[in-house]
Amino acid sequence: MLVEAFVLPKADLGSFVEKLKAGYEVIGPVANDPEFVFAPIDSAADLRLDYDTTILPPHKKYLAPPKETLMTFSGPATKTGEPAPAGKQVLFGMHACDVNGMLSLDKVFLGTYPDPYYKARRENTAIVGLNCTAPCANGFCSSFNTGPGMDTGFDLSLTDIGDKYVVCVGSETGKALAAGLAPAADADRIAKSKALRASQEKIERHIDIDNLGEFMHQNVDNPVWAELKERCLACGSCTNVCPTCFCFAVKDQVDLTLVAGERPRDWDSCQYLEFSRVAMDHIFRPDRAARIKQRLYHKLTYFAQQFDGSPGCVGCGRCATYCIVAIDPVEVMADLRDNPGEEKAVKLYTPPDKKVTPETSPWEPLPAKITAIKQQNYDNKTYTFSFVDPAVQEKYTYGNGVFNEISVFGIGEVPISISSCADVKGAFDHTIRAVGNVTKALDKLQVGDIVGVRGPYGVGWPVEKMKGKNVLVVVGGVGLAPLLGTIKYIANHRDQFGALEILYGARSPKDMLFTDEFEDLRKIPNTRLLLCVDDCLGMEWGHNIGVVTTLFDKMSSKPDNSIMITCGPDIMMRFAVKGMLALGWSPEQIYVSLERRMSCGIKKCGNCQIGPIFVCQDGPVFKLADIQGLPEAAL
Amino acid sequence: MVNPKVAFFKFSSCAGCLLNVINIEPVLLTVLSVIDIEYFVMAKRDNHHGPYTIGFVEGAVTTPKEVLELKKIREECAIVVAMGTCAVTGGVPSIKNFSGMNQDQLTKTVYAENIYDPFLASIPAKGIDHYVKVDAYLRGCSYDLGEFVELIKRALKGEDPMFRPHSVCNECKLKENVCLLVSKGQPCMGSVSAAGCGALCPSLNRQCEGCRGPANDCNAASLAKTFMEDLGLSKDDVVRKFRKYAGNTPEFSKGAEAAL
After folding, report:
1. Of B116, B136, B157, which one is at a domain's C-terminal end?
2. Same domain for B52 and B108?
3. Residue B36 belongs to a domain with what CATH number?
4. Does B163 reside within a domain?
5. Could you read off the pLDDT of A292-348 as tens digits, one per residue?
6. pLDDT more than 70, % of chain A
């Protein structure tokens, strides 16, 4: 069907903008000598529709701004408000690359767990696009079919055909905005097509997207990455100016009362060392080359894997334009294509297909009271929580091995796995070691104190798949916390499972959790519990000395009709998995729990990614077969 | 509730960081309602001895006497904060460490022979964490007042302030400043320097001088190469840039060494 189109003589642009201003704040490209930025305009005279590109992408700046307050609070669990809803705005003159970048961001913010702040702005924002009849110097949008013209994502799109614009209608809103304009004649439409074709021919920069995902996976070890590491300054400009980069960090701010304040989010960047930092200064992606790879792989393949095939790169060219050392995806890809790695079969990761749309804001922690605290060992406590609102508690269910975000306003949020069994009603447990700002604050709390909790999040242990099978549990240190619920579930439903064998290792006897429950675990029918420590510290110890894999000789579990589940430090799981594979177990029957910096829990902040994986939603429990051979090693 | 006791100390430096404390007028009275300033020679006549909850230390350590004083401060203060670049990395005084002269030559060059006094005995300029454990850092020449107040709040709450050590480029891009390096060919050091200043200098059209020291895992060697090969800076200029505020740090040393 022919798109509805009108014409807007350039002489009438001023009155057209005035009309828009009656209903919207009009935001358009203005000069920021010698560059351009999107900013609110007073009149069409401010507009610089001849702009090539802008420093920040307009949709990111105005739909997911660099800093925004999620909520305000007056105490550790007392929310006082949220920002006022956004007013109506029109982004006037957005180029096709940015319109497509916005459509990609829509997938992030409006997909699973829709973000209420982005959603409110998006719904109050009209898009008047501007097709590029004079392509910019660094763009390569035609490679991804995200420019120079736009087919979708706009309310109106303008195309300069000389003394007038052809105005195409993309929505009912757009149609209303175009009221009063004269219809486009056939000659106008032809002029538009010609202008865009000519523009497309002028684009000289291209990325070969043939088999791009597979090709990237085959070039993980290409020497190109080591060269880029020597050049990259790690400044992070590339991610700030990128129209599809969405990662952010949440850090509470308090005023001088020290208890009241706000919870804002700020853009963050995977290029920074501390992006993947967790408590105890552990950094999951310490190598700069790995961080460079993470960005370019995310742009060129992961994003599409994560978000329904939407492009992670729209070819706007900003990252190349603003890179001091001229790291340019077009050149990087040309280098890779010139010296490709070995062609090999590649399986691209596919995330679980799920969309969660909660009734309330996914950002809102709900008050939960601490009803019991139990000291587990010298640095771990188990807290029992119950939501203050009985109706919330009544509806609250979770799978074994999933996690909650525990919030203490004024300090922050922390993802903690649930250590109670999914069978328990009316309360839930978290076993917590006081190592970071939030966990240290939790450590000071008493029974009766209230914190915020949101969740549960993630995919837990495959309890349904384990039914009818023998279960081998390999645990290291505090890794028992996310597994204890599952062990208890097996005990509660003993006839539904085969033999249960638990291998539990820790640094020393005093580092073990739940020691007072060991007798109960041993009493579960058809169950063995084998223990080991690296060092018994001179204490009486009637069990193995050594790492947990030294228990493999003593275990009775066999691969037949069995599932292994494991949780512990990465290095322990790596060796445990290696040992199991050597004993003939298959990656299809091994499940691991990976933990990264799961700051938001709802597939938004980006901190927890491992290659194409969002640990917070795709995991934290993964089948080994699903995460083997990723470009970024998961274990 | 008794307010925590706070002290301000100064070693070899310009005193600007201490003076800067008094510049927090808009929140000064509120801050003074949550802390008691017990020792602040620049601002108070009536000063008291420790122990103190928080000790803010300005200045580089450049004499043996200062080392002893610093160790005493460490004993007296539960929390020691390196306040300003001199205390953090050695700052401007540390330029002398790279002069190529030994201490005797330096003394003779700087002071007329007839005024020489053992009091002037000097050692290489270092940040205070060269000698004592430091709990928190306020980077910058001078530091950012917002960070100063933030640090007080976090300290009172017993938290790590976790100031982000990422690049000045980050804050510069968020302000949509025209890039002084890419667009104007100026040797701005923002890409390898730690932010927190709100990209103050580039926002005023001045290159970043790296006063807050290196950003996390920055690549100063690569920027040094860009300065020389693309912007035509001399070897000496590049070396001077990387040794102006934080030549003592391993990161900026790499920038200077790449030019040498």
Report:
1. B157
2. yes
3. 3.40.50.700
4. no
5. 999 999 999 999 999 999 999 999 999 999 999 999 999 999 999 999 999 999 989
6. 100
Q: Stretch A531-541: mean pLDDT, rounded?
A: 93
- From B157, B182, B200, the end of a domain falls on B157
| Shared domain check, B150 and B27 | yes
Asked whether residue B196 is assigned to any structural domain, the reply reads: yes
The secondary structure of chain B as a DSSP string is: -PPPEEEEEE-BS-SHHHHHHTT-HHHHHHHHHH-EEEEETTT-S------EEEEEEESBB-SHHHHHHHHHHHHHEEEEEEESHHHHH-TGGGGGGGSS--HHHHHHHHS-GGG--GGG-----B-GGGTS--SEEE-BTTB-HHHHHHHHHHHHHT--------BHHHHHHHTTPPPTTTTT-----GGGBB--S-SHHHHTT-----TT-BPTT--HHHHHHHHHHTT---HHHHHHHHTSS-TTSHHHHHHHHHH-
Which of B153, B170, B217 is opposite residue A273, by nearest beta carbon?
Answer: B217
Quick check: is B162 in a domain?
A: no
Distance CA A158, CA A17 (A): 13
**Cβ of residue B207 closer than 8 Å to a chain A Cβ:** no
Domain A463-593 has CATH 2.60.120.560: no
Q: Which of residues 232-251 of B touch A (CB under 8 A)?
A: none
> Is A1 a residue whose pLDDT tops 80?
no
Q: Does A435 touch chain B (CB under 8 A)?
A: no
Domain that holds residue B32: 5-157
Indicate whether B153 and B173 sit together in one domain.
no
pLDDT band at B106 (very low <50, low <70, confident <90, very high): confident
The whole-angstrom separation of Cα A91 and Cα A38 is 8
Chain B 12-71, CB below 8 Å of chain A: which residues?
Answer: 27, 30-31, 33-34
Which among A34, A231, A269 has CB closest to B170?
A: A269
Q: Given a cut of 80, is residue A564 above it in pLDDT? A: yes
A403, containing H or E segment: strand A403-408
How many domains are contained in chain B? 2
- Residues B177, B117, single domain; the answer is no
For the stretch A272-300, pLDDT in tens is: 999 999 998 999 999 999 999 999 999 99
Confidence at residue B244, expressed as pLDDT on a 0 to 100 scale: 97
| CATH superfamily label, A366-457 | Translation factors (2.40.30.10)
Q: Where in chain A is the domain with CATH 2.40.30.10?
A: 366-457
The CA distance from A41 to the nearest CA of chain B, in Å, is 17
B91 with B113, same domain: the answer is: yes
Residues B41 and B117 in one domain: yes
Any A CB within 8 A of B216 CB: yes
pLDDT mean over A67-79 = 96
Could A440 and B158 be called an inter-chain contact, meaning their C-beta atoms sit closer than 8 Å? Answer: yes
B107: confidence class by pLDDT, cuts 50, 70, 90: confident
Is it the case that residue A186 has pLDDT exceeding 70? yes
Looking at beta carbons, which residues of chain A come within 8 Å of B216?
Answer: 234, 272-274
Cβ of residue B3 closer than 8 Å to a chain A Cβ? no
pLDDT band at residue B1, thresholds of 50, 70 and 90? low
**pLDDT of the residue at B104:** 82
* Helices (H), ranges, A130-231: 172-177, 186-202, 212-217, 223-231
Same domain, B179 and B85: no
Q: Residues 249..278 of A with a Cβ closer than 8 Å to B: which?
A: 251, 253-254, 256, 258, 267, 269, 272-274
> In this predicted structure, which of A368-382, A525-539, B19-33 has the lowest mean pLDDT?
B19-33
- Note the pTM of the prediction, 2 decimals: 0.95
